[in-house]
Amino acid sequence: MSQLKAIQDPHPPSWLPHLAAQGGPRFLQIADALQAAVADGSLKPGDRLPPQRRLAAQLGVDLTTVTRAYDEARRRHLLEGRGARGTYVAAPKVELNPVLDLSMNTPPPPDGVDFGDMLKQGLSQVLMRADNELLMTYHLGGGSEADRQAGAAWLAPMFGRLDASQVVVCPGAQAAIAALILALTAPGDVILAEPMTYPGLRAAATRFSRRIVAVDADQHGMLPGLLEQACRQHRPRLVYLNPTLQNPTAITMPEGRRRELAGVAQRCHVRIVEDDPYWLLADAPPPPIAALAPHQVLYISTLSKCLTPGLRVAFVLLRDPDERERFLVALRAFALMAAPLTAALATQWILDGSAGGLLEGVRKEARLRHRMARDILAGRYGGTGDGLHVWLALPAYWNSAQLARAADSEGIAVTPAEAFATGSACANAIRISLGSIQDRGRLQAGLQRLSHLLARRPEPFSAAVV
């Protein structure tokens, strides 16, 4: 640990940090010290901060480090610049009725990762190495050769070495699902899915006049016997499965069940769409169904659910060249292609290791948040310890829609089971997403508030008269 020395000022401010060699980026240590000083009252709104050069000298760091620290503190709404008068501690930001959003399934921000710096470095490398004209033109073949190679590298933990020509780059998993429906089914066709499933499937199927039929599931996922029965009854064109940390139930289907379902699909000549956004977040997941039955399954892996929502890139593994071409034709009907600049950034991060580092940070943060949820929700916790969400079965005195409304009135957003139901039956549960609230303290407050709400019975409805 390097001891702080006041080089220019014999009486340096008391809030200045001791910069630890192993304490992470120094600019973040300085920003954290500012945040702690504001929190404990050492720094008050309106206090003037030292000029950046003076602070750099006091801390024994370069000016750029202090500039980045002040920028980070401004991003956290701790500081405000007043031109030539200098930099001051900002007044607290007032939020009217702030919503604690537990409804959006997004990756949590990993601790210690400077996302802004990652973006700057990644884009800088892309612009330095890529042909700028190619970044601003059409890519109609499902991504550039480099993008498909990056997709094959991203899918290697699931499948090992892949032929990059079988990988198609798409603008997100929702676009991939919609294009597969258009390419492989016709209006009026049936798609089989579990009773609780991803709402985007239902939205796309409804828009394209396809019909979703629910096949019952148990604690291991869709039941093979009932799948076979439904295949013979409805003659479906596709079966949709989300077998790893399923959205919303958080179930991970065991390998034996995956093999059974693949066998049914082969016997009944029906294709499986395996939407697998969370495989890389799971702890020792079974092989994808697409690895067990390569020619029966169409596989989707998106970066938005395990890295960041803004990276709208998904990789689709399509082994049959005719299906691949039909898929691309369908995709062009509404999305044309993934934005080349976004795809190039994803490729850069995958190939230089940044994506792997970000993924590991998201994993660690997600597991920490699951431990928090397990401690606060106690016996009601319905998670597996990893992934982005918890499926919370409700006590009998609440129903899911009622609980969601009550939570909303207390400034908490959750997703009721009705949003995921594909059949007439609906579980009495809600999905809680653990990544959409960036600050852990606010997440803890939201979970505690929700726990208190669950513990009490709903109040009788009364209409206000004004």
Automatic annotation (TrEMBL):
CDD domains: AAT_like (cd00609), WHTH_GntR (cd07377). The keyword DNA-binding applies. Keywords: Aminotransferase, DNA-binding, Pyridoxal phosphate, Transcription, Transcription regulation, Transferase. SUPFAM superfamilies: PLP-dependent transferases, Winged helix' DNA-binding domain. InterPro entries: Aminotransferase_I/II_large, HTH_trans_reg/aminotransferase, PyrdxlP-dep_Trfase, PyrdxlP-dep_Trfase_major, Tscrpt_reg_HTH_GntR, WH-like_DNA-bd_sf, WH_DNA-bd_sf. It holds the Pfam family Aminotran_1_2. In the C-terminal section; belongs to the class-I pyridoxal-phosphate-dependent aminotransferase family. This is PLP-dependent aminotransferase family protein.
